[in-house]
User: Fold this.
Amino acid sequence: MGSLIRWLFRLNDTPKLIFPPSVATVTVRKSNKSEDVADVSLQELVETRCPSLHNEFRPAWWLPSGHLQTFYCVMGDFSKVDVVNYDRTLLRTLDGGTIGLDFTPVGDQSHFQKDTPVIVVLHGLTGGSHESYVRAILAPACAHPEQGGLGYRAVVVNFRGCAGVPLTTPQLYSAGHTDDIRTALLYISSKYPDAPLLGVGFSLGANVLTRYLAQEGERSRLSAACAIGCPWDLVANSVRLRTNWWSRQVYSKGMASNLKALLQRHIAAFEAHPNLEVTKAIPQVFQSSWTRTTLQQFDDTITRIAGGSSPPFPFPTAEDYYVWASSHTMLGDVRVPLLALNAEDDPIVTVLPVHVEGIAMSPWVVFSTTNGGGHLGWFEDGSQPAHPLRWFRRPVLEWLKAMGDDVVLPKVSARPLLEKDGWIMEEGRDDLGCHEISGGGRVVGAEGEEGLLAGL
Assistant:
């Protein structure tokens, strides 16, 4: 009701900007490609280079609430909106797993400079490169500057088993497991050694992204990032999903339904290992009494066991997994510029770290919230159902352009790469590595979304 009243009376929905008590300083070019630079705070950078974060967001008249924004994100037809094609590369990891990297633009790359920024995208819960929220950023970001784009490259990291990527071990992914993005960045860094890598994460992928940045600190291979719709405190937000009737019946069970469908697609990968704890647990997920499984039930049965490598998996309960996987307590450890965007009426992410006392924010974090927008929606006034426009594309593109073109990013201080017996690895770590395998190919438009609820 509050969202409807705001829309009817056109009440102000200018994004709120939250900065830490101490704000980091970056070096900025005074003009494009200029050698003339100045040191400015991140706050001043946002004020001058990200105007959309200071302008009003007005939800589309036909989507005045967070529930409607989220429903449309899930149920809308975006197949002909922001069409992006990809060239897929499959990576084999040291533990036998498979990660799918979807690169865009496709075709001839000779016109790109060696230092053209590369956007590295992490998708939501059961998504992939086909998701409309991913394409809403990549379509303009990878368009030629003469067409109003940024002219950047991009790659979407599809998690194990997602978006048509085969599951080759009995291990899935989770909101807390970061070794797969860490491994993917080894390959991307080797492919584009002179290019700054800019991370963009959505929902679950935003949580993985934030945890990676915090864990790596100054060694991050990503020079800057943006986290959109991050769930942050998995414990607090799971309580809301579990205790609110509407949230439990619609959102929790909808996300669990997607996870069950994904598990069903890859059941053979588990049946090849009949003695594993997770394999023995799978039949329970498909019992008739579990026809409307909640997200916590699925996590308590499957994710806590198979959501990452051992250790730390398996966890005793889903609650223990949620405590470990949350990212809100790690915001103080981030050491590269990070823009976080959340909507206050998001029905899935209802508890934000800026609402909680005692959560430390690194000087490198900029947090922005809007009153409206739902979960990964932000469909704005002036949009029509046939051509919906997402407000978040504007501030995200402004942030990426500022980081890719304007800020003089420091040289990445990650551990050196090395090749060992055909594996791309990192000096000082023998537990991570990858090499390219066959089975990639062209991914066209919205391919890969069939059979699952999109937008989550």
Notes: The longest helix spans residues 245-265. The chain has a mean pLDDT of 92.
